Request: fold
Amino acid sequence: MVSRDKSGASLIERAEHLQRRRTRIIWIQGLLFLLWQGSFFSARPEFGEPLRRVEQLQVGAYIVWALVLLALLATGGGLFRGRAVRELANDEVTRAHRRSAFVWGYWGLILACLGLYVVALLEPLGLMDVVHGLLSVGLVLPMMRFVFLERRSERHG
Amino acid sequence: MADPKLANGLKAARTRLDLTQADLAERVGVSRKTINTVENGVFTPSTVLALRLARALGEPVEGLFWLED
Reply:
């Protein structure tokens, strides 16, 4: 017997709705997060100068945004959808996709570290720029990998 | 030596019982995407999932999954 909610949607339909919505959100948020890096690097203060109030707020917002995205990627979201829906939306295939996404993030971080090493030979880098760059790669790359894998598996339906 | 490919007869067993992917997903407790990807050989299921699929379809697990030489 298929269990259905008030709207007539079964547990699986609700979980699949959550999966599609989550993939869409991660895709859009990942792109926005990436685009926002342009404004950070173009408007940041000169190397060694203290941050102004507005820049401190900007960095604070960036950290909060990064934490929210990381939580979404790591937990799969859907906190208010009920445990059964959440478990279905994070079933074996999704968990495998998440693991693969984090592995890509690891390799992306290592390659970004190597790249920054080379850049640091040519010009001085501020700690803020380095951390910002690494955090962005370590977050956006797994998000995009997760979206790619989820969409590919949906296409096989 | 290359790993042998895992083949499966999931779709045949499912259609024999006149089940849709959604029906099987409901029986096993996974999303339809998981059934899709296992049927198409895109995803290699864990031992636990393979056993749950076999139980849901009333087949021995080695009748559902085998290694291609």
